[in-house]
Amino acid sequence: GGSGGAGGINAEYGTFNYFRCHIFKRASFQNNKITTTEGIAHPLLEVLNLNNNQITKANLNGNELRKLSVLEIRGNLLTSTAGLGLPKLQRLYLGENMITELADLDKCIALKILHLRGNSETTNQIESFDRLF
Prior knowledge:
This protein has strands at about 25-30, 45-50, 70, 90-95, 115. It has about 130 residues and is largely without helices or strands.
């Protein structure tokens, strides 16, 4: 058996360039100082935890994250949901960010749970996203 986890990926590198080399379905990089989602690409990944980092902008590619169904990205510095439009995503946890703009969520055709608690500016915009309710 393997050691589990992310196979030695260290957030201090500031990049996920060799993320593709590992075969796993779940990855957690919570409580690091990650500032970007650039380079996260793994076709088998189903669950990704990026909670409590310093991510200001998401840029996740649905072609490279074809199976991602759960994304936890709470407690970051996101101001928009732009870059989170993943077709297979079923659960998206965005609490405790600074989100003031809902964008790209129309691409999340499988979305069942959208968690926005702690984003006070977002509350007024929920009404415009009827498809979830």
